[in-house]
Amino acid sequence: DKTIPLVSINNLIENQILNVSNIPFNAQGTANDLTSQVQKIFVSIDNETTFSLANFDGLNWNYTLPALESNDYNVSIKAEDYADNNSVLARLEITIDINQPIINSFMIDNNNSYSADEIVALNLDIIDATEVRFSCNNVDWNAFENYSTSIDFNLMNSSIGCNPSNGNSITVYVNAKDSSGNDTNANDSISYDSRIPTDLTLSINENAIYTNNQLVDLNLSTNDGYTEFISFSCNAIDWSNWQAYSTSIADFNLANNLIGCSTSDWNAQLYFSAKSKAGLISDTNGFDSIIIDLTKPDAFTLNDLNYYNKVNSINLQWTSAVDPIVNSVNSGIKEYN
């Protein structure tokens, strides 16, 4: 028997890429010999000097490739018949790529906690990614699209499990894939809230009309439950920095000229604006006013006492007191004691 056997590889092709989902890979093929029949199949990875024995049933062979690092490899197969004739080597080159894309970061809307917009930017930093796809339930996915560091995403896309209600958190999942088909996942969450603060009310010193102190107490309310920040102004033009919302504020300074207030007597008018957690600002402002009167009444004269002996009463008389008008305001004389 001088006829060499024939061997073929059936489930690998030249330059095929095997990714992490293909490993371990079981190579398969057939072999035959018309004279003495094939008795053994040998497989070599890369060097063709060291061969390993494959499984063989007389016609079909299979061999599970050993654990290999990501690299290019030459696979060589040979058959041996019972007359010790060896076949021509069946050779092909394959690529092992088991390195998944590395997700450095995945953020929704630059890592903001809230969004009032249905369309948000997804911010991605993924090494070796070529395509990405997204889901809101980790089950239903949109089609793969080319990888980019910023991708617009619709939080209301119900076909992939989105559609949050106001004030609720939503999780977005990303599935990133490289050119070899290796993939990896990550997720981030954001709260969607398109509600605007409404029904703002403000009371200065419990709705007092006058005060002789520029430091006053405020009571505030909004009819929503999702106001996060508030700001104040005395002229509705110059506003304070946003501060945490509170229903009561003690010792508010109505002499703060940085927000349009006056430092003397005046009819103080105070506005407040509210902002939601998602950054939406109220359409209308809360408002109250109070007259600040820092000026004492003018001095006045007590007339001479008219004293009558053996009379149990004394009649006191004086000139009328005057409360000066400053900046067009005064509180008037309230009482004499």
List keywords for this structure.
337 residues; mainly beta; 5-stranded mixed beta sheet
Topology:
Layout: E1 6-9, E2 16-19, E3 26-32, E4 38-45, E5 52-53, E6 55-56, E7 60-64, E8 71-81, E9 90-97, E10 102-108, E11 114-115, E12 119-127, E13 131-135, E14 145-146, E15 150-154, E16 168-177, E17 183-192, E18 201-204, E19 210-211, E20 215-221, E21 227-233, E22 243-244, E23 248-253, E24 266-276, E25 286-292
Parallel strand pairs: 2-9, 11-17, 19-25
Antiparallel strand pairs: 1-3, 3-7, 4-5, 4-8, 6-7, 8-9, 10-12, 12-15, 13-14, 13-16, 16-17, 18-20, 20-23, 21-22, 21-24, 24-25
Structure overview:
With 337 residues, this protein is an all-beta fold. It is 0% helix and 44% strand. It contains no helices and 25 strands. The protein has strands at residues 6-9, 16-19, 26-32, 38-45, 52-53, 55-56, 60-64, 71-81, 90-97, 102-108, 114-115, 119-127, 131-135, 145-146, 150-154, 168-177, 183-192, 201-204, 210-211, 215-221, 227-233, 243-244, 248-253, 266-276, 286-292. The strands form six sheets. It has a five-stranded mixed β-sheet, with no helix packed on it. A five-stranded mixed β-sheet has the order 11-17-16-13-14, with no helix packed on it. Strand 4 and strand 5 form a beta hairpin. It is rod-shaped and about 160 Å long. The mean pLDDT is 92.
